[in-house]
Amino acid sequence: MALVPYNENILLSLSKLHSSSADFRFAERRIRLAQDWKGGGVAAVVWDAAVVMCVYLELGHVELKNRTAIELGAGTGLVGIVTALLGADVTITDRSAALPILESNVKQNVPPHLQGAVRVSELTWGEGLARYPAGSYDLILGADIVYLEETFSALLSTLEHLSSETTEVLLACRIRYERDERFLSMLGDKFTVQQVHYDPQKDVHIYRAVKKKTKSEL
Question: Which residues form a coiled coil (predicted)?
């Protein structure tokens, strides 16, 4: 969500974030993503949570073929691109300022025969949700999108709008601060949440959430 660049003096050791591109291999394809730390900040680089999510998806822990997916806070688009390469119909979203680099990465890394199964769309959490059909997605994906406490309520309302009781929500994140735990608690009020994967090397958790039924539905 945030598009404000961090102070570079704090993160000089993270040279990979300052590279103009990042290379990966998923779904038997080379994926090269443009990055722009100076211009786009945290939304324009690839974070470890996205890589861990892609590994998890490629290992087949989630059925993707012929499923409808949406990625929130996609940034450079790695998760959404890999999800499409693995067979899903994907809407890849972020705020408007992040869309140029996102659209370019999708165009460069999704082969022509799959371009029709991928769309890039502007989505600011909690705003204009009527443009996205309520409860119509099989899978909602988010990698490292739980970090700004002021966005938590909007993120939760977005997840509620997009989900039905059969939708799987997968969130990959580091638990850095107490506020991250608070979001998981907020999520647990509306969804049944469980940790399904942990990468100790990258310190990234993946949580699966499924919307709870309302009292009227029980």
Answer: none
- What residues contact residue 33 under an 8 Å CB cut-off, 6+ apart? 21, 22, 23, 24, 46, 76, 77, 78, 81, 105, 109
**Tens-digit pLDDT profile for residues 11-26:** 433 555 556 788 999 9
Which CATH number belongs to the domain containing residue 106 in this structure? 3.40.50.150
Q: Return the SS3 of 39.
A: helix
For 62, the domain range is 46-212
Cβ(81)–Cβ(53) under 8 Å?
no
Residue 208 placed within a domain: yes
The reply to whether the predicted model has a pTM over 0.70 is yes
Angle between helices 99-109 and 78-85 (to 10 degrees): 30
- Residue reference for tokens 């073929």: 65
Identify residue 1 by its one-letter amino acid code.
M
